[in-house]
Amino acid sequence: TPIKVGDRLLLQNCDEALNGKPATVSAALGGDMWDVHLADGEQFRVGRHQVTGVLAECVIWDLPGVGTPKFPQKTYLREMGIRHFDMVVLMTASRFTEAELVLAEELRRWQVPFFCVRNKVDADVEQEIEKEEESGEDLGEEGRLSIERQTLGTIKSYFETEFGLHDVYCVSTRRKLRDQFDFHRLEADMEVVLKKQRLAPSE
Q1: Where does the pLDDT of residue 113 fall: very low under 50, low under 70, confident under 90, or very high at 90 and above?
Q2: Which residue among 5, 22, 50, 87 is least enclosed by CB atoms within 10 Å?
Q3: Distance of CA 151 to CAs 125, 162, 170, Å?
Q4: How far is CA 171 from each of CA 63, 158, 177, 178, rounded to the nearest angstrom?
């Protein structure tokens, strides 16, 4: 399939700014040469020998929870077509239900990559900080960071002990808190899986 304007390319043999990063084609120059740009707008010119693949288009689906009367666990995987997904994010603000854990096992069986995410951890951290501050103690920045680390550790230990989940991502989806917790690690790990699942050959 010819590479065209708007395609997202995965590149190699470039400078550090481009290697392994997706770049969007701005112009097809002919002779197997293209002008491309990164997300920040920086422009480059690349040749066929630098293109390792073309990233396919992706669609994000926000599905209803599993294990409800309308969406029973027994038929959920089949009716939602999840075994054909590139990856799945299981998200909770408290704990995972038995139906969600069964779904995770089904995803493993069908070899569908999935990520377990504990949302709203900022509320848990603030709650623990408030408990300490009620005693009149001035925590300071280091004290608050220490409580944050302890709280995240407690949450992750809980999911590992209770549900056997060894890599739970603790996040807050509040925009101002996206640089905290595991949000960027989740993004990076999802990008790796997406590239692996949706990388189409460049020839």
Answers
A1: very high
A2: 5
A3: 6, 16, 10
A4: 19, 16, 8, 7
Side-chain-facing half-sphere of 111: CA atoms under 13 Å = 1
Exposed / middle / buried, residue 161 (Cβ in 10 Å: 0-12, 13-18, 19+) = exposed
How far apart (Å, rounded) are the C-alpha atoms in residues 121 and 162? 18
The token duo for 162 is 């209770």
Q: Can you give 107-149 as a three-state secondary structure string?
A: HHHCCCCEEEEECCHHHHHHHHHHHHHCCCCCCHHHHHHHHHH
Residue type, 62: D
User: Taking the model in full, what pTM does it have?
Assistant: 0.70
Of 13, 17, 5, nearest to 48 by C-alpha is: 13
Domains of the chain: 8-55 (2.30.30), 73-199 (3.40.50.300)
